[in-house]
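Before a computer can learn anything about folding, someone has to put a protein's shape into writing. The outcome of that step, for a single protein, is printed below:
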Amino acid sequence: MSGPVKHIVMWRLRGDTPEERAAARLKVKTAFEGLKGLIDGLNHIEVGVDVSNVDYACDVVLVSEFANMSDLTSYATHPEHLRVRRELGDLRIDRHQVDYPIDAAEHRYEDRE
């Protein structure tokens, strides 16, 4: 796979109270948004916080795009990404991930919107 890649990660976070979960969500959002412009090949990063509050929902979703699979692989061990992971410690209790190639035609369409 040589083209652009979308990397999506969703987490459920620790917190015994709604306030603790809200604080954890904000911490994750702020930490990952802080990576904008710091990692070569990371073309887009977006962090969404769940507002549905349904019991089966994840708390936070990270949607990012990389120039290619090699850049995504480099991101995994990049010092800034590792710093964020250390900073967040054991906040997560569950993690789900999907990586997939971005269809070039679809990507061009999204750029026009």
About this structure: DSSP finds four helices and four strands in the chain. The longest helix spans residues 18-33. The chain has a mean pLDDT of 91. The two ends are 26 Å apart (CA to CA).
